[in-house]
Automatic annotation (TrEMBL):
Organism this protein belongs to: Phyllobacterium sophorae
Record's keyword terms, sorted: 2Fe-2S, Iron, Iron-sulfur, Metal-binding, Oxidoreductase
Pfam families xrefs: Rieske (PF00355), Ring_hydroxyl_A (PF00848)
Protein name: (Fe-S)-binding protein
SUPFAM superfamilies to which the protein is assigned, alphabetical: Bet v1-like, ISP domain
CDD domains linked to this entry: RHO_alpha_C_GbcA-like, Rieske_RO_Alpha_N
Cofactor(s) it depends on: Fe cation
Metal-binding recorded as keyword: yes
Amino acid sequence: MLSTFSSSISALLDARAEGYTLPAGLYTREDVFGADLDVFYRNHWIYIGLECDVPEPGDATVIDIGSTSLIVLRDDDDNIQVVHNVCRHRGSRLLDAGPTVISKLVCPYHQWTYELSGELVYAPHMGTNFDKSCRNLKTVNFKSIGGLIYVCLSDTPPQDIANLEAVMEERLAPYDIRNAKVAYQTDVIEKGNWKLTIENNRECYHCAANHPELCVSFVEQDFGYDADTLSQEDRAEAEEYQRLYEQRIKAWEAGGYPSAPVEQLAGHATNFRTQRLIISGKGESQTADTTAASAKLLGKMSRKDLGDTHLWGHNSWNHFMGDHAVTSMVIPLSANRTLVRTKWLVHKDAIEGVDYELAKLTSVWIATTDQDGELVGRSHLGVEDPAYEPGPYSPFTEGQLDNFATWYVERMRAHGY
């Protein structure tokens, strides 16, 4: 039988109506926040970073998710490792948050020392009968998919991550994200629940009024419209664009660049969607003038006209273009605070001031992320208001939000709520 704690959350899940936003408590309550961390950040695959965050042996970085702290590192054999940031002696944190360079992992408390593989090699004053092999660092289930690192903190991770792996290894291969480099990173704390952050990212209903920089490179028709309300001229324009897009998809795929939409959403454990979209204007990149920000293209790319390959999951969104990529991950901090960490990637040999200018590379998504943060904050204030009641999603522009809310309820149910 479900506990009172679970039953109260269950009642909120019961109250969610198809086609409508979630009940307020699912965004605002602390017990729901705790359940969300457990279900979606411990028992599902989440994106936490990149292989190129740790490009050389000895490079390490710490990512905190709730009370869990993880170390992503590159070991002496040039392999990626993900281990818990917990000494096997008395639990001390080994490394502080953020990036660092190490030759071994040495606990600052009592100097227990681990190889970069996680093997315990030195534990002073523990006696001759002490078995070090039983005290190696705890490892984490992880996968590098095209250079993007996904982890699952559960001992029984969802197996359908294999579908994401199969789709995205092929799609990301030309960009060679494993051998890119991080040109810039921002951390933005949004004053809202993580689900509001994801919902805001899943639609562009709000884009025309709020994202002038981003809309320069986006094609409005890609994000849905009510054809019945369009003028004859606008309807003809939308239909012509659809024909153009279908032709472009065929041409891209004929050239060896998978482009058609692939999605695994409601009805599955691992949530993702990918599609290659046309970039408007000059068609090269998501920059202020839609031309490439970097003269040195990513990986094996030789063309600037391959649009924007986007990929999103339940805690991330990513855009891969010929010249650069933008990746964002979402980490809940509290019921009403969410970290959005965004990274801009360029070819590993690209030189700032020679191959690219940082302002051109970053300006569009810096502005967009700041704008989104304000919108999420306004949304959270609204769902906290006693006057809030779930509102209807637009069937034309917000269908993916309905899909996300449906998936959210399904996965909560699957974990006993």
